[in-house]
Task: structure prediction
Amino acid sequence: MTSHRAPSRKVVLFRGTEVVSSFAHYATTSPRASLRSIRNEFYRNPVLTHATLVDAKGRKWSIHRRTHTLTLLWLGLRVR
Result:
C-alpha cells in the first residue's frame, strides 16, 4: 500500500554553509505565507545568512537575509 503525500514547500535555513534548521509548508498555504515565515525566522535568529526554498515543482529559490521587499513580492508570484 502506498501513501499519497500532498506536495509541499521545503525551507532550509543556513548559517554560512551550515544547515541550522529546516521545515515544510503544505502547498495549499500561500507562497507569501512561506516567504513571510522565512522573513520571521531571519528576524528571530540573527545568525542566519540565507534560506533555500524548494517549491512543489522542485525548483530551488535562494533567499538571502538582505533580500529587498520587492524581490520577495516577485518571488511570491513565481513560487508555486
Q: What stands out?
A: Strands lie at 8-15, 18-26, 50-54, 60-64. The longest helix spans residues 31-44. The two ends are 29 Å apart (CA to CA).
